Amino acid sequence: MSTAVNGLALPGSCLQKTCSVVVVVCVLHFSVSLLYYFNTFQGLQEKIFVQNPQHKEVGTQVTEISSRTVGVPAKPRTTTLAPPVTEAAAAPPIVDLPACPENPPQLVGPLRVEFSDIITLDDVRNQNPNLQDGGRFMPKECKAVQKVALIIPFRKREEHLKYWLYYLHPILQRQQLDYGVYVIEQSGDATFNRAKLLNVGYVEALKEYDYNCFVFSDVDLIPMDDRNIYKCYKEPRHLAVSMDKFGFRLPYNQFFGGVSSLSKEQFEKINGFPNDYWGWGGEDDDIYNRITFRGMSISRPDGVIGKCRMIRHDRDAKNDANPQRFDRIARTRQTMNTDGINSLTYQVVEVHKDRLYTKVLVDVGSPNR
Ligand code: BGN
């Protein structure tokens, strides 16, 4: 028997054989495709959930193929993958705090500042429960824009330091600063050297934390308005602009004494402060010169916000007026490149950590004359 297909006559048995071969080839092709498909899908899953231990989805519902049996379509089942335990998952969550605002919301403005209140350091510690050891603080509600080291040159003024800590800690916290307090105490009885102690404070504070702003404050000066923010500005800042001692006015336009702030860059630009002013006076004028010789200017708060009180005291022993100060401030331009942070030498005698401050006792030597 023969069949006509498109005018071609094929013998019946031949057509049957051809059809059988085609069917077998099709079945084979289908099986191989199925096998390939399931293998690929399983491999993909392994890639996502096994080879990538950083995968962070917690409790994700995934559809998993339960069988790899060739030719048997796997019945999908739903299961819950346990999150892989990684270091990142074990660590506390890092919450991205918003940046602290330009105007801290807790500021109150003018403050009552008196030195007749009887206080103890324990009172101050109790009133500042949020301080970390070493007089460190960081706001919890926002990320401070600047990391501020407060540097206080010091010798035998415990009573003043107590008032400074009593008034300043709450102010600095309301100002939402990420800050640390460094009391740099000159050891021995040589003539006092304020500017060199400030240089030491800069170096010692940077050993502890990545500070980018430095506030240099005398221990006896207290701001009378918390809007006078103890941080750094585009230009070096003079903060003690309106002192009661000078009738709440600037004693002269170039005055840069008492309390000032410089960013790390500004401080480096002027090679820090002079190391060779022994005794009272002139070192702040030298710093003023350095700033202007490097093309910077002084920024200041207004006379109301910049009001501050000085704790009355007698002139300290070993801090007589420096007779060389006039000559020295006349030569700042020549000396500033070689006398400063690049020529600083000193020996740390002791570092003491209190909850209210870090005190660094330091040997800065004695005048070479
Ligand atoms: C100035 C001092 C400053 C001091 C202020 C305020 C000098 C240099 C010679 C003119 N400068 O006279 O160091 O901070 O008074 O007391 O003495």
TrEMBL record:
Top-level EC class as recorded in UniProt: transferase
Membrane-spanning parts: 20-38
Superkingdom of source: Eukaryota
Reactions the enzyme catalyzes: N-acetyl-D-glucosamine + UDP-alpha-D-galactose = beta-D-galactosyl-(1->4)-N-acetyl-D-glucosamine + UDP + H(+)
Membrane topology summary: Single-pass type II membrane protein
Chief subcellular location: Golgi
Cofactor: Mn(2+)
GO cellular component: Golgi cisterna membrane; Golgi membrane
Boundaries of every Galactosyltransferase C-terminal domain copy: 237-314
Stretches assigned to the Galactosyltransferase N-terminal domain: 100-232
Pathway annotation from the record: Protein modification; protein glycosylation
Keywords per UniProt: Disulfide bond, Glycoprotein, Glycosyltransferase, Golgi apparatus, Manganese, Membrane, Metal-binding, Signal-anchor, Transferase, Transmembrane, Transmembrane helix
Purpose of the protein: Responsible for the synthesis of complex-type N-linked oligosaccharides in many glycoproteins as well as the carbohydrate moieties of glycolipids.
Recorded family membership: Belongs to the glycosyltransferase 7 family.
Protein name: Beta-1,4-galactosyltransferase
Provenance organism: Erpetoichthys calabaricus (Rope fish)
Gene that specifies this protein: B4GALT1
